[in-house]
Write a structure and sequence with these properties.
Blueprint: H1 11-32, H2 38-57, H3 60-79, H4 86-103, H5 106-113
Length: 119
């Protein structure tokens, strides 16, 4: 039997991290368009990249903050649903999917609560 020294990232956590990475492209594109400012876009990109990296590494803090920001995003999207178009609906769905992927599957619970594999 081959013994693995590293744990594999579960699929739900990997999908949540990929959604965050895709979501980082939005503030990145705003930096080069007529958006609010380059600094705001850079902060958004760095925050999303840090959260995705933390999820990938199994950080409980990254899971907590990703869940908090995604829940706030869903709430904000629902409140402003009358003003939001397709992008607003996509934001709500994406944030809700992230929350579900991080909180519901058993593999996600194990990923954030198990001790790292000993080598």
């Amino acid at each position: 039997m081959i013994e693995q020294s590293q744990r594999r990232v579960p699929v739900p956590v990997a999908v949540a991290a990929v959604i965050l990475l895709v979501g980082a492209a939005i503030p990145a594109s705003m930096m080069f368009a007529d958006g609010p400012s380059v600094a705001t876009g850079l902060i958004g990109v760095l925050l999303l990249l840090a959260l995705a990296y933390g999820l990938w590494r199994g950080s409980g803090r990254a899971r907590f903050w990703t869940t908090v920001f995604s829940t706030v995003s869903v709430g904000y999207g629902v409140v402003t649903i009358t003003e939001a178009g397709a992008s607003g609906l996509l934001q709500i769905v994406g944030a809700a999917v992230i929350v579900g992927l991080l909180l519901v599957p058993a593999s996600s619970h194990r990923w954030f609560h198990d001790l790292p594999a000993e080598g």
